[in-house]
Amino acid sequence: MLVLDVWIEAAPSPIGHLVRDNAMNLAFAYTQDWLKNANNHPLSLSLPLRDEPYDDVPVRAYFDNLLQENSQLESLMAREGLQRGDIAGLLEHLGADCAGAVSVLRTDHPPVKRPGNVREDYDPIDEATFTEIVTRLATGRPLREEMRDPSPVAGVRPKISLAALPDGRFGFPKPGSGAPTTHILKLPDPDHRHEARDEAFLTLLAARCGFQVGSSIADTVEGHDVLLIERFDRIIDGDFIYRRHQEDFAQAAGLPAELKYERRGRPGRRFDATTIGRILAATNRPAIARETFMRITLFNLLVGNNDNHAKNHTLFHDPGNSVELAPFYDLVPVQTVAGFKEDLAFRLGKAELPEQVGAADLLQFCEKIGLPAKGARRLLANAARDLLEHLEALSPDFPKEMGALDRLLGETSDHLNTALELGLNIRQRDAHVVKGGGWALS
């Protein structure tokens, strides 16, 4: 049997215990200290506060999503002879580095995460070291030990976490400080070197359409394209940085990471509109959350981001059991590049492909996520009209390098305008034709 403590930053003691029995089954139970404080929140919507322990299926799904899919995980599995399905065994070694405010530690291990003081808890990185980090990540060379990522983040792209310091430099948390980082430095797919530029542009475009999004900046370092992303799950109060507890929609739905697309699941256990509606219903302001999610779904449809899977949507959990939608992120126009997966991440009505989406499909989606049937048509039409008018007004000023996005936008806008009978004037563009390159979306 293996027993591990589960912590949340700044909690005075473990909030629960993760147990693996001799048959490799998992269980999780909250501590009585955590349960007796009415101001405390659960780890996940899929693990609400209760006295009784949770059994293997929901526990495995939540904690599986804490593991980072990167070379560190692969090296550990090879070194320790662990299987990917041994979630607790892997977290025994990697649980100190879970993304966000959660950590999973041996019972004899002290807490490892605490708020950081930007003037005391970080070692600055000089320009030469910053450049070396980018070069090593871009060329697949391992980082030197003193450069090791102190706060690894999930995803298939090379990334490293950094903290912004008051003097304008970046730094790493000092060893043993437990201090959080504030930014993620991400390098794009080498087969699509403009991914950083495209993501930064699309994120800015979403902000100009009124969405709450993470801040990101694209740049080039020694010929390598990079994207610098400000972490949205941080609270900065004067000199102090705090982690904000969050979970992605896969965790909230009780789904393992491999079921992040609807097409991989089965009825009753998949990331579909019904599941999304159940998650949105649990937020503080479900009516606003439903309408916001409907709007971002329309935006993603218009700009060709059909990779908006369950791990690309997030909730915040705050004291007092407060749950709200986090800012949107990982906004990438994947349909502007050849080789992308054409399927929608989740079906809209009966539509599995963007070009199949009609008014009836969108209305069915709206109703399944919880928008009232009586008002869904009006809300949908108003949201679509607002987005199309915003995007049409902004698109003439797109930079030349975003020409493919503009052509795609013309095609998708015309399709949505016709499907919903909005009667808007859509500027004519050249045909959207995808050439060359290749995304490798699974």
Please tag this protein with its features:
3 domains; 442 residues; 12 helices; disordered C terminus; alpha+beta; 31% helix; Phosphatidylinositol 3-kinase Catalytic Subunit, Chain A, Domain 5
Please explain how this structure is put together.
By secondary structure, the chain is α+β, with helices and mostly antiparallel strands. The protein has 3 domains: about 100 residues, no CATH class; about 120 residues, no CATH class; about 170 residues, Phosphatidylinositol 3-kinase Catalytic Subunit, Chain A, Domain 5, CATH 1.10.1070. It is about 30% helix and about 15% strand. The chain is built from 12 helices and 16 strands. The strands form 4 sheets. The protein has a 6-stranded antiparallel beta sheet. It has a 4-stranded antiparallel beta sheet with strand order 3-2-1-4. The longest helix has 22 residues.
Quick summary:
This protein is an alpha+beta fold. 31% of the residues lie in helices and 17% in strands. It is built from twelve helices and 16 strands.
